[in-house]
Prior knowledge:
It is a single chain. The chain is of the alpha+beta class. The chain has one domain. The protein is built from five helices and six strands, in the order H-E-E-E-E-E-E-H-H-H-H. It has a six-stranded antiparallel beta barrel with strand order 1-2-3-4-5-6. A hairpin with a 4-residue loop joins strand 4 (69-74) and strand 5 (79-88). The longest helix has 25 residues, at 113-137. It is globular and about 45 Å long. It starts with a helix and ends in a 9-residue tail after the last helix. The model is unreliable at 196-200 (pLDDT under 50).
Amino acid sequence: MIMFEFFKKEFVPKENIPRLRGGEIRGPQYYVVTKEHDVMCGKLQVQWASHEPTSCFRQGFEPFRFPHGKSKFCLSTLTISVPRLECSEKSGSIWVGSERIEAGIIRRNEGSEVSMRLNPLAKRFELQNYIRNFVARNQALFPTVLALLEVGNCKTPPTLRERVNLFEWRLKLAQDTLFTDLVGSLKMDALDPARQSLAA
């Protein structure tokens, strides 16, 4: 919440959002900052298509493309869908779903102080999302990755829902250096199925 309020003065005013320049190839990049401290960096796909209201988006939406995929910024609620790990206690399965969170849009001006502050946070978000997708695809390694994200002397709660919530909490608190090392280890494991280092 503190970061969201700190960057609020940089947000594109709501009335100016429909006039932002789009284009996946030659268009500019934008940051989308959420109240939950997520920072996503991506491109507005097409501006002209975003004015059409739907039953879900009463004032229309802005279609963004981020490294992790597409997401619609709602012009009426000023919210955007953000990846989150979800689970089913009944089946014991986990997957990457999404949560709609209040957010603001900031123009990306390379070299500016704001961009220098937000670039590392956007990189952090992509590392977090890689880890989310990894545990969703490799559920047997979920307890191991969760343990690697441990901060302090936290005891893993018994239920899957609590472990998923703990996973998201630990992703938020982990140091950037841990993300880099962990993603490197997960990528090596994914390339060589015979590796058992993470499951050990």
